[in-house]
Amino acid sequence: MEFNEAILSYDSVDISYNGQKVVKDVSFQLHKGEILGLVGESGSGKSTLIKACMGILGDGGMVTRGDIHFGQKNLIDLPEKELRQIRGADIGMIFQDAGASLSPIRTVGDQIIESQMAHGKISREKAKENAFSLFEKLNFREVDRVWNSYPFELSGGMNQRVGIAIALLMNPPILLADEPTSALDVSVQRQVVEEMIRCRELFGTSIIIVTHDIGVVSAMADTVLVLKNGEMMEYGKASEVLNNPQNDYTKLLLSAVPKLVRK
Amino acid sequence: MDTILKAEHVVKIFDTQKKSSTKAVDDVSFELRKGEVLGIVGESGSGKSTIARMITGLIPITSGEISVKDVQKKNKRQLYDKVQMVFQNPVGSFNPRKTLGYGIGESLKNKGINKDVIDKRVGELLNLCGLEKEYAKKYPHEVSGGQCQRAAIARALAIEPEILICDEATSALDVTVQKQIMELLIKLKKEKELSVIFICHNLALVQMFCDRVIVMCNGKMVESGTADEVINNPKDDYTKNLIDSVYC
Ligand SMILES: Nc1ncnc2c1ncn2[C@@H]1O[C@H](COP(=O)(O)OP(=O)(O)OP(=O)(O)O)[C@@H](O)[C@H]1O
Ligand SMILES: Nc1ncnc2c1ncn2[C@@H]1O[C@H](COP(=O)(O)OP(=O)(O)OP(=O)(O)O)[C@@H](O)[C@H]1O
Ligand SMILES: [Mg+2]
Ligand SMILES: [Mg+2]
Fold it and tell me: Is pLDDT above 70 for B18?
């Protein structure tokens, strides 16, 4: 597939927590409609890398070198007020720990309505209608019960789907998905992957998906970036990286993937 | 093989404030044998974590019975010594104001073991789970998802339980670390006859490491058998659909 303009670009980025460098010299470009798979060792900096462009590294975390451009804007220099407008509406995020990213004291329905109304003119009824139709696609059995539940009343995978719904309902041009399917059974996982691919087809959504599931990467990614110990090991077309890896770590990673043995 | 845990006609109903109730677990019976790895797979929201929480006594059983060998009913102390659990959400299972090392060593401290011995043991446990001992000094929010998950596994192994319940304990790990953890569990199974309940969405991993498998759907146990039987010769429609959904 051919890409034109880069919508998000990382240029020689270093990131540190309390002076300790955890991401080193990472550069890549995400184009309109592209799906980038970000894979690699646990603790290699994948979550850190995608949190950086949202300005949500937390206390002690900072980009110490390089630039992150979103269109014409350098996200590194942007004041918090402007970043807040970009978050959710322009760059959506599905968090690795979905349960913890939801408010524990408000119902799922209230949280979804609030997040949708915060950024645009939409009525409560319309917001609810949109959510219900997405919930159906995400294989929820009892849509009404989920809507009226608090996060603690839902399973790990149900909360993860709520997190996915909140991000997708904003219909952002860029979606950063951190392990979005790790708590889902494979049949729901397939629904979620298909839904993300549909967003790309319908709206040209650009997606970075962080995952340990190489099957998911090969099902949806156009490009793949392999990270180890904060450094880029390999970056290129998904078909090439997955079928003909050049780097030793990538080879090791691919060879360790457990495969279902069908007789 | 001896039976070490037995669940008989277990039901869990959650009553929520709006007078509605959810049957999360619906008449589930199974046995865990000593030295066995039993996989539980199935639909998201089908009651897997709820079963795990009932076994460990975190939530009461609505009806039916779960018995663990040599543990008297309602004796939480005895149960805790025998059965340990790795929670589905590792970050939330650690006290945010205490270091990971404190959390891992806490059960040893409660047994009156002295501090030097605990520190050494915590370091060893971290190493076993693929983390350097320096991670003992970190707080839960200062580590990656997979690092926290490994600390949670180290914590569950600290008092050398006879039964380990892993609720999605490897889902945040890359495949090389995942392999290391599975090899550790298999080693403990062989050397110490550890029995494991392994709740997992990764069917390939389940096939590779579990002796037997239970399939859950909508609160019910729809199928059980050896890993190969269930995966290569599924009887239930839900199981068939699940296996057909695997990417590869
Ligand atoms: N808030 C923080 N303070 C200090 N160190 C941190 C913080 N967050 C992460 N780290 C460290 O930065 C490194 C990268 O962490 P990150 O969460 O980005 O990894 P990851 O690739 O997402 O891993 P995983 O696959 O396990 O989720 C790790 O070594 C981690 O311990
Ligand atoms: N505290 C609670 N109050 C009310 N309902 C609950 C509570 N905890 C769980 N449930 C409900 O019980 C059902 C089973 O949840 P459980 O967490 O056991 O599922 P699971 O099989 O572990 O799913 P997943 O694979 O997504 O983690 C779900 O419908 C959930 O909404
Ligand atoms: Mg991460
Ligand atoms: Mg669960």
Answer: no
Chain B segment 33-72 residues within 8 A of A by beta carbon are 41-45, 48-49
Predicted complex ipTM exceeds 0.90: yes
**pTM confidence score:** 0.95
Inform me whether the pLDDT recorded for B17 exceeds 70.
no
In angstroms, the separation between the Cα of residue A181 and the nearest Cα of chain B is 10
Range of the domain at A11: 6-254
Q: Please report, for the domain that includes residue A201, its CATH number.
A: 3.40.50.300
- pLDDT, one tens digit per residue, over B120-146 is 999 999 999 999 999 999 999 999 999
How many CB atoms within 10 Å of residue A194? Answer: 13
Residue A47: inside a domain, yes or no? Answer: yes
Q: Do B43 and A185 touch (CB under 8 A)?
A: yes
Burial of B70 (0-12, 13-18, 19+ CB in 10 A): exposed
Residue in chain B closest to A179 (alpha carbons) equals: B172
Domains of chain B (ranges plus CATH)?
3-69+162-245 (3.40.50.300), 91-160 (no CATH)
Q: Which residues of B touch A252 (CB under 8 A)?
A: 176
| C-alpha to C-alpha distance for A22 and A230, rounded to whole angstroms | 5
- Neighbouring-strand partners of residue A118: none
Give the other-Cβ count within 10 Å of B228's Cβ: 12
B146 Cβ inside 6 Å of ligand 1: yes
A154 CA → ligand 4 middle, Å: 9
